[in-house]
Amino acid sequence: MKLRPIAAIVSTLLAGVACPAIAAPTSVEFSVASPIIQAERKVIASADQLPRRSYQISKLPSELIEAPKSELEAVIAAVDKDLAADLAEFDIRDRATRTGMIGARAQIAIYRGDFAKAIQYLRDIRSQQEKEADKLMSGVSAEIIMGVRQKGGSDEAQKAAVKAAVAEAWGKMPWSVVGDAMKNTKGGLELMSKNVTIGSIKSGLDPAVTNLKFNVPVSIVTSIVSVRNAFDHSLPFRDDMVAVLQNIVDKNQVAKVDVWSERLVNLPESAKGKPVVIGIWDSGTDVDLFKPAAMRGIAFDKDANPTTSLVRPMGEASSRMASLKQYMKGSLDLRAAIDSADARALKQRIGTLKQDEVKQFQEDLSALGMWAHGTAVTGIAVEGNPFARITAVAMHWDNAVIPQLPTEASAKRTAAAYTAAVESFKKAGARVVNMSWRYGSTAYEGALAFHNVGKNAEERKSLAIKLFDIEKAALHNAIKNAPEILFVAGSGNEDNSADFAQYIPAGFELPNLITAGAVDQAGTETSFSTFGKTVVVHANGFEVNTYIPGGEKLKFSGTSMASPQVANLAGKLFAMKPELTPVEVKALILRGAERKGRVNLISPKLTLKEAGISM
After folding, report:
1. pLDDT, tens digit, for every residue of 326-352?
2. Are 361 and 401 in contact (CB under 8 A)?
3. d(CA 382, CA 434)
4. Phi, psi of 599 (to 5 degrees)
């Protein structure tokens, strides 16, 4: 629940989301409202201020995605009306939330065959995008498909028209800006599978709907709509779009400009440094790959009870580790548009999965991502620092498709685990602790809905906030009461606002905590990086080469890879100048960073110079 698996393309596909071509880029219809009307609208500053509603559906999601569309018309009409009213009434201060809501309206328009309205939404949303690649790519292929659908014609004529139009549109875009996004889109398209998506819905959404007695939140309705849209309007053009993207990739095999490597500093063994303990608070770490501290660490199981293994146990999936690691490598290669044996093996497996095999495959990949995650983070945190000593706190979060039921007892156990974790770091003498994980109250809201706890959606929201606040307070107090430690948090990979989502720990504002977003090697903010007022620095989090348990190296992406870059710099400062305090180290990191728009890119070289440290 609290940590997303690294194999992002695979997990996204198996979650049953729509294909990249018909994803939910949208518009804001109220953008032309008068200043007076704008001032009268209620400001929404956090996700929990938005209303929650439920809608009665007649069948299971797996049935509705293939049923006559008329069976869902009354429901989607109600959803569309409520979304329009909310967008008119509320001044939503998070672009991702706002466009996500209007994205649902775009999906409904597509579902109804109102392609002209969908195109209007798609064009409007591009004007709201903040990241350079999104300003160019957002909704382009979907708009082309909708335009072709409007004109009609034979299937072959439409396929030829889409292929020609996307080749022209994508081909004009600057590769230096959109290259990574195009590679990622290509990987997502290649893994599309109707069979796997239906299997995922049967194992995840159908049980939730049954528990809820078919009275479901808006997210389930829009999931049904977007999956049906993907089946109807993306799959028919998938192979042609992949071919176009492959041709563009082949023509642009040039190395990305690298402004990151020149900023890095490796401390030599001969430097006059002192051992520094770096804490890794994550999903499990292979401490033996590194130099362990005297106190190696502690661990908690999925129920937040103490356990022993610092590396996440894979249990029954251990017998499938060889193939699972191949699929993880394949997903990373697909994301980078690399045609490898591992990528081909993953595509073949996805293409042959039966619906009743999807649940186990999904859970295996989730567990594998968490098995690898903490070790990958650690490799980045210690790179180039011979004085680094590792202590770990391993949180073996649940990997099941069916979420655990959150209760006050479980929240209190988690709160106690947070307190114990920070006490462990204190006893180990940690100077800096990396936390590449985050979550908000909506995680518990979804789990409560799955189990149909609460009289209605609003009561579930309140209960989720109550449980979340127990854990939030414990984590906040634990960090606050450890002023001798600098905590480094990853912002998140949802391209949203960390403070609007009220993520912990990323949304905290404390003197001894710093939150990092991700850029690529060229210093450009990544498409996935979460932002917000608490995200004060950025570091490379794109295709970072690091370890997995056992010592093999792979290239991972995410803000999970960016925050340990910041922890790495802090560790070097503490090693070379142990007398520095966390507040002083944080200030040095901020002073050495270089701002460009929203990005505030750290520079280890400048920061060490600022601290008076020379090699």
Report:
1. 999 999 988 888 889 999 999 999 999
2. no
3. 11
4. -85, 135
Q: CA angle at residue 155 from 149 to 157, to 5 degrees?
A: 80
Quote the CA–CA distance of 333 and 222 in Å, as a whole number.
30
Per-residue pLDDT, 573: 99
Q: How many CB atoms lie within 10 A of CB 246?
A: 15
Q: If you ran DSSP here, which 8-state letter would residue 75 be given? A: H
Confidence of residue 43 (pLDDT cuts 50, 70, 90): very high
CA–CA distance, 595 with 606 (Å, rounded to integer): 13
How far from each other are the two terminal CA atoms of the chain, in whole angstroms?
43
Residue 589 to residue 601: CA distance in whole angstroms = 10
Residue position matching structure tokens 């849209």: 229
Name the phi and psi angles at 473, rounded to 5: -65, -40
Cα 43 from chain centre: 26
Please report where in the chains the tokens 């204190």 appear, as a residue.
426
Q: What is the pLDDT of residue 337?
A: 83
How far CA 596 is from CA of 174, 479, 524, 537, 538, in Å, comes to 20, 30, 9, 11, 11
3-state SS of 440-492 is CHHHHHHHHHHCCCCCCHHHHHHHHHHHHHHHHHHHHHHHHCCCCCEEEEECC
Q: How far apart are CA 559 and CA 519, in angstroms?
A: 8
The reported pTM is 0.90
Tokens of 598: 């929203």
Distance, in Å, from the CA atom of 491 to the CA atom of 559, rounded to the nearest integer, reads 6
Nearest CA-CA partner of 127 in 43, 26, 37, 20: 26
Q: Are the C-beta atoms of 486 and 433 separated by less than 8 Å?
A: yes
Read off the pLDDT of residues 226-275 as tens digits, 9 standing for 90 and up: 999 999 999 999 999 999 999 999 999 888 899 999 999 999 999 999 99
List, in order of start, the domains of the chain with CATH numbers: 8-251 (no CATH), 268-315+364-610 (3.40.50.200)
Question: What's residue 217's pLDDT?
Answer: 95
Q: Could you report the per-residue pLDDT of 498-534, keeping only the tens digit for each?
A: 999 999 999 999 999 999 999 999 999 999 999 999 9
Report the C-alpha gap between 146 and 125 in whole angstroms.
Answer: 15
Contact status, residue 28 vs residue 102, Cβ threshold 8 Å: yes
Q: What is the mean pLDDT of residues 581-606?
A: 98
CA distance 532 to 212: 34
Length of the chain measured in residues: 615
